[in-house]
Amino acid sequence: MDGTVFAVLQLCVALALAPFLPGIVNRVKAVAAGRRGPPLLQTWRDIAKLLGKSAVYSRTTGWVFRAGPVVALAAATAALCIVPWAGGGALLSFDGDLILFAGLLALMRFVTIIAALDTGSAFEGMGASREAWFSSLGEPALLLGLAAVARTRGSVSLAGILGVTTTVPGGAAAVIFLVTCSLFIVYLAENARIPVDDPDTHLELTMIHEVMALDHGGIDLAYIQYGASLKLWVLGGLVASLAVPRTGQWYLDAAAGIAGIVVVAAATGVVESIMARLRLIRVPQLLVAALAMSALGMALSLMTNLPNPPSVAV
Fold first, then answer.
1. Cβ atoms within 10 Å, residue 309
2. Under 8 Å between Cβ of 223 and 68
3. CA-CA distance, 64 to 59, in Å (whole number)?
4. What are the residue ranges spanned by the domains of the chain?
5. CA-to-CA distance for 252 and 264, rounded, in angstroms?
6. Parts of the chain with a pLDDT under 70
7. What pLDDT score was predicted for residue 205?
8. Tell me, what's the pLDDT at 309?
9. Pick from 90, 74, 148, 121: which is nearest to 301 by CA?
10. Helices (DSSP H) in the chain: which residue ranges?
């Protein structure tokens, strides 16, 4: 299959299937608790219902509040165009695109924070402050982990890092393992999952991400929920792509990519079933541990001989 066609197909599949991931997480949690749980289509139903409602805006908010959900959704979609979660080339790929990927996630977080601050609410300001603090610890772990894998793969593009068919040397396998564990922690933190945050809580004093969306409603809330699903997919695809080998056959790589993302979502449900939410003072320690694993992976990559330029599966 042509590389551009395959990249467009990856994007369309992700846009259609991303809202199923919260349903998978909730279904796993329900099974672990002995309950039936909500249907897998519940997130799509919620988004469809919200799209039919108009948004209500406070007189204290301005254009920043209204632009936040739209810009965040656009940033999540753009990030999805960079990550080749099913192998091959991405729709948007160039040397150093991993910096743009991290920047788009930061932009998504930034507009959400300033939209929360624009409300003038003390509760939303509290959640925005926590989000900014934890992200300052998660971003270095993400960038350092990607840099370690980039050096091991011999490429500074996500397509060269995640879409290659060549195997890594034995010493580099430890780097991939450490970075995968680190990015899984970042994945939980960035998506406001347990043990960092509880997406199902309604206690304002303990919420982080959800409290920043308290004043959003209608179509704006639909954008936020859909953007959160895309972020869950793109970061889950990043984690899964490091662990799933590539065959060079587009249909096998696509099936393996979807299966890997589903496994990551199921693992998220398992984590939320067996762990409690950490105290806020413990969350920085968890993120520092992720940063330490990324740093150790970088140190190991510096001691590993660089491989030959990888071949990208198309």
1. 12
2. no
3. 13
4. 3-302
5. 18
6. 1, 164-171, 202-206, 305-314
7. 63
8. 45
9. 148
10. 3-17, 20-32, 42-51, 63-80, 97-118, 122-153, 158-162, 170-190, 219-243, 250-274, 283-302
